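Thread: quick sanity check before group meeting

JM: Hey all, I'm pulling together slides for Thursday and realized we never actually wrote out the predicted structure for the chain we discussed last week. Dropping the sequence here so it's in one place. If anyone has concerns about the input, flag it before I start.
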Amino acid sequence: MEVHTPAKIELSFGYTFRKYDGPLGNIGMNGGYVSGTYNKFRWLGVTGQALVVARSVGSQSAGTLQNYTVATVMGGPQFYPVLHHKLTPFGHVLVGAGGLHFYAPSYAGFGGPDVRSTGLSYEAGVGVDMRIKPRWSVRLIEVDYGQTKFYSGGSGQGSTRFSAGAVYLIGHKTSK
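JM (edit): ok, ran it. Output follows.
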């Protein structure tokens, strides 16, 4: 079995679907992510990740359009339990900040809400990357469960996130 020395730096970007369960209901949101990982050891790296997802609900012509946006910036350790191979599973725990923006138009002469909130955000997740070229991998799947705390006094909002994308490898070597 071919074992890969990990790239010193992995830059990833791709698509994200987030199922957000917050005070405004359960909403499926689409967006994207970018991440960077510095691999200190074959089994351990440090990851930083930013993502934005959004969704519009309702009708513009009927004046019921509501816009939701959630963004997070987090970082933490990334673990490689079986080191690096053609298929490389990983797990991580990320902590940082999140932001929520909710907007609805005015209705019947009353101003619509324009809510912005920031707070603590954290996620734990797993994924699998597949090496396709010496400098490129495909992120086949990444699944994360997280919590945000956008409103004071609340219990927090949960979310499940599914991501897929591309990974560019910098400082890569292959050994048998």
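AS: nice. The radius of gyration is 19 Å. The first strand starts at residue 3 and ends at 5.
JM: adding both to the slides.
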